[in-house]
Amino acid sequence: MLDGIIVKGIGGFYYIKTELGIVEAKARGKFRSRSLTPIVGDKVKVSIVDEAELKGSLDEILPRKNSFIRPPVANLDQIIITFAAKDPEPNLRLVDKLSVTALAADVSCAVCINKTDIAPKEAQQLAEIYRQTGFAVILSSSETGEGKEELKELLKDKVTAFAGNSGVGKSSILNSLIGDEQMETGTISDKIKRGKHTTRHVELLELPFGGYAFDTPGFSSFEVEGLRAADLENYFPEFSPYLGGCRFAGCAHINEPDCPVKDALSERKISQSRYESYIELYDTLKQVKEWMK
Length: 293
Known about the structure:
single chain, CATH 2.40.50.140
C-alpha cells in the first residue's frame, strides 16, 4: 500500500497525492459501516488496482490531529483568516469567531488583510487591532504583490486553510502563490479539473515552495464543539497577561469590578472591537446548555 493525502473528493471518488502521482480511488465499504467519511486533508493508505491509469482503493484513514465540519477538512497546521481592508467592508465579528474556532481546535491562527492598495490607511488601523493578539499579521495586495513573500514564508511546509467571506480575494492570493505555470501544468489540475474561477469543492493544492493550501468555499460557521463560556478567555490571547488577577474567581470580565482585563481595555491594551466580540461570543456560549455540549 502507498501512503498519501486526499487532495479532493467528488462524486464518491477521492484523489490522493502519492509518490506515484495522483491516484483516483474509491473508499472501501468498511468506512460506511463505521460511519467514517474520508475528507480532504486526510492522510491515508491506498492500494493500486490499475497501475496504468493510477486507480486504486482507499484502504485506511490514518489518525487525524484535527478536523472541521464546514468545510470538511482535516489535519490543518494553521488557518489564515483573510479579509479585505475595504470592498467588502471587513466583518470583524466573523474574524474573531474564526480565530476562536482555530485556537480551540489547537490550530495556529494568522490574519491576512487584503486589498491594501485601495485602502492603505484602513489596513494599517485593522492591523493594529490584530497585532495586539500576537497573531501573525500580513498586509497583502494581489495588485501590487505586497505580502507575497511573507505569505510564502508562513505557508512553507505547512498545511494551511484560508478562511473568510467571499469576495475578499482568497482565490487571487492562492493563484499568485501557486503561479500560472503550476496551475496549467500540474498533475493535480489535469486529473481533477480544477475550476479557474469559482471555488465549488474543497481542494488541497500543493505549493511549489513546499506545503499545501486548502482552496475552499470558506469556513462558514462558528463551530466549537464542547467549548464553555468560562473557557472563552483562553482563546483571546491578548487577555492572557491579565488572567488570574481578578478579584472574583470565575470572573467573566464583563460586569465584575476589579478586573485587570477591563483595566487593560480602558488602557487600550485590548482593542474595543475584540472585547465586544468576546462579549458577544460569551453570551452565545452561555445560552448553550451543558447537556447540549
